[in-house]
Amino acid sequence: MMLDATDRAILNRVQDDIPLTPHPFADLAAELDLTEADLLARIERMKADRIITRFGPFFDAAAMGGDFCLCAMAVPAGEFESVLTKVNEHAEVAHNYERTHRLNMWFVLATETPEGITATADAIETETGITVHRFPKLQEFFIGFKVAA
Predict the structure, then answer these.
(1) Which of 13, 26, 84, 109 is most buried by its number of CB atoms within 10 A?
(2) Using CA atoms, how far apart are residues 139 and 125, in angstroms rounded to an integer?
(3) What is the CATH number for 43?
(4) What is the pLDDT of residue 145?
(5) What is the CA 136 to chain-centroid distance, rounded?
(6) Helix and strand numbers, DSSP H then E, in the chain
(7) pLDDT of res. 87
(8) Whether 130 contacts 74, CB under 8 Å
(9) Which CATH number covers residue 115?
(10) CA angle 24, 28, 33 (to 5 degrees)
(11) CB-based contact 131:125 (threshold 8 Å)
């Protein structure tokens, strides 16, 4: 699926702030000279076509009393898919990546409380029989990462 100029404009624009208004998509569509329905349809199409994998807010769990933690597991190759399914069943798993390393499954936990990290990681260990290595955030860096479409 190829992106047209309007798709690119949408992707570039939504990486900045979405308007915090009663009708944010209508306001965003007006900025882009689109109808709200066209904007939403394009976003849905890009998700369906896997051009984008996620569209939604990013919340700072720590600022709201929760916590984040980067985690890794050494999953035997033959068990990867079944472990992946078990890990991803937890709503606290923000995203999950396979890596070519001894620690081949990496994921981020985002929980409502700092204790939620321990509870979720312990549950995953119990369910899978595999150690969840935890790499808590020591310092935060804001890099303002954006990808030009």
Answers:
(1) 109
(2) 26
(3) 1.10.10
(4) 66
(5) 17
(6) 5, 4
(7) 96
(8) yes
(9) 3.30.70.3460
(10) 145
(11) yes
Cα–Cα dist 137/94, whole Å = 15
- Residue 65 CA to residue 45 CA, distance in Å, equals 35
**Same domain for 66 and 44:** no
Q: Are 95 and 29 in the same domain? A: no
The pLDDT value given to residue 16: 82
- What is the b/e burial string over 78-90, where b = at least 16 CB atoms within 10 angstroms of the residue's CB? eeeeebbeebeeb
In this structure, are strands 105-111 and 133-136 parallel, antiparallel, or unpaired?
A: unpaired
Task: Please count the structural domains in the chain.
Answer: 2
Token pair, residue 128, equals: 């899978």
Residue 44 sits in which domain range? 5-48
Long-range contacts, stretch 14-20, CB < 8 angstroms, 24+ apart: 14/43, 14/55, 15/146, 15/147, 16/146, 18/57
Is 18 in the same domain as 68?
A: no
